[in-house]
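dude i think i finally got it to work??
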Amino acid sequence: MSALCREFEISRPTGYKLFHRYKPSGLHGLEGPSRRPYRHANKLPFQIEPAILQIKQAYEAWGAPRTC
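look at this
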């Protein structure tokens, strides 16, 4: 592994990480995991959003006055 890592100019920990990704998944495993977040921190659960919209429609006078 040391000679192979020297040839590709990568560290041994990186070489082992790539090797352990390649073993179970083949070339597809070398693409690396997605960095996309699993969920958005500020997004409400989908069950709550319609309830809030219904309340907003039922009580339009609540909240700040509209200027437009």
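Residues 24 and 30 are 10 Å apart (CA to CA).
im so relieved honestly
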